[in-house]
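Work Package 4 report. The design task specified in the project plan requires that, given a folded chain encoded as structure tokens, an amino acid be chosen for each position. We show below one input record used in the internal validation round.
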């Protein structure tokens, strides 16, 4: 199919009444999904499966991201919070199970194996990252690099299926789109004090802050005003905007030299919302 409608199709699997009522869900992996669909849709042999392959990959990613929202501890005695935690676990399993169901019914067993291997690798990478986080042995650059690697892992597995003309381009273009997507998310987290833990800003500040500032960062519920002051001192949000601007320029430069059956033009249009985001009033003020 030529029209992109993956989020619309995915919605009927994701927006389950009980899940939506009792717990929050992660963002849909829009950029990675659109880029994968664009590449598969240009494939001479796989274009007929571009919608199915992209759909199941997005559902698996939502499942993995939903599991990531489950708190590490289960100390909460409040019934609503406990139910939300349980539903995140069940929802993540449910979304992931849809990928097996859809592919098996379509007779695409080989892709089940391909994505299953990618899931295992993504989980392995997460465990390594969480261990470094727990030990506070992580730099801001390492956090960014490893998080991008985790987010891109499912989609990266399609490199083996792409045609020779574009397969070499896939990892770099996917990495750049994933980096842009992550930076937009990190900017949003930088503006919400409750989401500072284990963000890029947290690791960036931890590398340079004073002992007193480190105490604030390591508190379970730090004073929002103090945290905001630290974020401003170390220019967390402004640096994230600068990183996003550099990433977008690198991506646009890469795509302008790509002309594989108008694929470059299509990919540039996918990145257009990022450009508009950077030109928004909040971005230009660097807040």
């Amino acid at each position: 199919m030529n029209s992109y409608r993956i989020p619309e199709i995915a919605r009927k699997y994701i927006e389950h009444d009980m899940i939506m009522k009792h717990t929050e869900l992660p963002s849909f992996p829009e950029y990675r999904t659109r880029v994968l669909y664009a590449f598969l849709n240009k494939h001479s042999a796989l274009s007929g499966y571009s919608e199915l392959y992209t759909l199941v990959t997005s559902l698996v990613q939502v499942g993995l991201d939903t599991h990531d929202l489950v708190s590490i501890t289960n100390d909460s005695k409040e019934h609503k919070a406990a139910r939300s935690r349980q539903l995140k676990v069940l929802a993540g399993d449910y979304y992931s199970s849809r990928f097996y169901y859809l592919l098996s019914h379509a007779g695409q067993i080989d892709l089940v194996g391909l994505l299953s291997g990618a899931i295992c690798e993504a989980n392995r990478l997460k465990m390594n990252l969480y261990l470094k986080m727990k030990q506070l042995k992580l730099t801001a650059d390492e956090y960014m690099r490893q998080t991008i690697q985790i987010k891109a892992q499912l989609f990266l597995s399609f490199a083996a299926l792409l045609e020779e003309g574009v397969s070499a381009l896939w990892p770099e273009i996917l990495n750049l789109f994933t980096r842009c997507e992550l930076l937009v998310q990190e900017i949003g987290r930088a503006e919400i004090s409750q989401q500072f833990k284990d963000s890029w800003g947290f690791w960036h500040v931890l590398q340079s802050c004073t002992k007193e500032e480190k105490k604030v960062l390591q508190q379970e519920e730090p004073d929002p005003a103090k945290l905001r002051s630290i974020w401003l001192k170390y220019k967390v949000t402004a640096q994230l905007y600068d990183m996003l601007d550099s990433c977008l320029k690198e991506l646009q430069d890469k795509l302008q030299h790509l002309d594989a059956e108008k694929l470059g033009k299509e990919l540039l249009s996918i990145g257009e919302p990022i450009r508009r985001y950077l030109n928004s009033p909040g971005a230009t003020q660097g807040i």
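The chain has a mean pLDDT of 86. Validation will be extended to a larger panel in the next phase.
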